[in-house]
Amino acid sequence: MNPVMKCITHQGASMKKFLLFFSLSSLTVSAFALPDYESFSDATGAGGTSYNTGDNLAGQKDAGGQSWFLAGVPGSSPQPTIANGDLIVPGLYSAGGGHSAAFGGNGNNARLNLSVGAGGITAGTVYFSFAMKLTDISTLTTGGIFWAGYNNSQGAQSTVPNTVATRVVTRASLTTPGAYNIGLDKSLGTPANFVWASGEFTTASTVFIVGSYTFNTSSGSDDVSQLWINPNSSDFGAASAPGGSLSSTSGNDLVRVASFTLYNRNANEPAGGLIDDLRFGLNWADVTPAVPEPTTITLGALGLVMLGLSRFLRKASKN
């Protein structure tokens, strides 16, 4: 065989072996451990479902192998569905795909298993993040109500999940018509214990939310829930979480974090809303990946090309 072709063939075979190993390793990690990423986009190429606009969210399976289940009274509607269009957070990496998840109203709920098994996470800190946009706030009251949070169970159930922590809460603004506030409830469900951010938002706002739940061991009510609302993009991908979060210890602790639930459970929820780019991880960086700098991408690609060329020339000269 021509020495050059021999070298190319050898390199190609080695690269195929590497890619196969890398793919299998990636699948193993995504199947059994965080981080998880739900982009609400077509996952049929990875063994998931198509996420077609208008389909129910319950029944979908993402590219990482995690599934959404109906969690509520059978036959109740509306339930969360797949919506057309992405939500964009400047500086945050997104896989795109052209879809998001729609929720709102008093109906049924969708629960996503985390890739941690039924035993869940029972120690340390677990984070989530998502982009959100409320499209109809006409049903909000000034008392506030939650519509998303961590749950301690997995799979389908015929009752509404009530053991929920790091609850994302919204209310009608106390001062500005047509605006709303975002807050945090650890797990108690009592409006007097909700913690509210000072900012106001409207139906034109796309908001980036990061939440966390930290397990502690001193008592049955010392775990900590935190919520960051529109954290600075300069902190995306940081090794540790920044300050400035809402924080709450009010309420009973969870035994485990095993899933995340998106609710249509109450008439005072937002009548319409969207979420996108839902992530889970064991550190801040897992759920706030920054868009890579163009220079970094260019230099990285150039480095790989030069490395491959160098190896090719060395091997060709030996044959």
Protein topology:
Layout: H1 3-32, E1 36-38, E2 68-70, E3 81-84, E4 99-103, E5 110-113, E6 125-136, E7 145-151, E8 164-172, E9 180-185, E10 195-196, E11 207-214, E12 224-229, E13 246-248, E14 259-262, E15 272-281, H2 284-287, H3 294-318
Antiparallel strand pairs: 1-15, 2-5, 3-4, 4-15, 5-14, 6-11, 6-15, 7-8, 7-14, 8-9, 9-10, 11-12, 12-13
Strand-pairing-aware structural class: alpha+beta
CATH architectural type: Sandwich
Rg for CA atoms: 22 Å
What's the helix count?
A: 3
How many extended strands? 15
CATH class type = Mainly Beta
**Helicity level:** 10-25%
CATH topology: Jelly Rolls
Largest sheet entry: 8 strands, antiparallel
* Low-confidence residue ranges: 2-32
As a percent range, the share of strand residues is: 25-35%
Give average pLDDT, whole number.
88
Order of helices and strands: HEEEEEEEEEEEEEEEHH
The CA-CA distance between the termini, in Å, is 10 Å
Shape: globular
Number of domains: 1
